[in-house]
Amino acid sequence: MKIAILGATGPSGLQLVQESLERGHEVKALVRTPDKLGHISDPKLKVEKVDIFSEDDLSQHFSGCDVIMSCLGTVPSLFGWNTITFYQDTIKPLVSAMRKSGNSRLVAMTALDTIPQSRGPWIFEWVIRPVILSSVLQSMSVMEEYLQQQCTDLDYTVVKPPGLTDQPSSGKEVKAAEGQYVEGAIRKIPRRDVAKFMLDCIPRTEWVRKLVAIGLPV
Prior knowledge:
Elements: E1 2-6, H1 11-22, E2 26-31, E3 45-49, H2 55-62, E4 67-70, H3 86-101, E5 105-109, H4 122-150, E6 155-160, E7 163-165, E8 175-178, E9 188-190, H5 191-201, E10 210-215
Parallel strand pairs: 1-2, 1-4, 2-3, 4-5, 5-6, 6-10, 7-9
Antiparallel strand pairs: 8-10
Helix pairs in contact: 1-5, 2-3, 3-4
């Protein structure tokens, strides 16, 4: 399988690139700074510079790929000093590029509880969400709504993990549920486990056009 990965130089994207290569897939890493992937050497890996806000540039790089995967992300704005619109700003040219290049399968990552559910630990609901993550989660929510309402012609899956860690894969089976929250799961997960789940989603029709909350069992 030939996979195009956006956000490949980020901590989650790196795990997705490495897991994809270990599974024997051909990977086209579409990045803003190619040098950041210079430490990974594999004959199945191509690293190409791309403008993530350009429909035309993206569509050229998407051509010939079987699936588009996105781990695009941005740094949260403390106390909401800067309004973040990164996620809705990047999903629109990405979708337009997919349509232009004839791609239909998209697996993208956002986060758990992009819409407030008041079910998390108090420190998350009363400190982390409003102080650190509010603008990021709002932008992710707009992105999800856009896919749900404007992209019924695409086979998208949005994977929504809880807090991410750089620990090795847990080796456990990931719990998953449609929606904003998955019951009976802890609120931390290794990025490698997320990468594995995202790749496992590609052929699974039950997660097509769905938001899928994931987590590790308690």
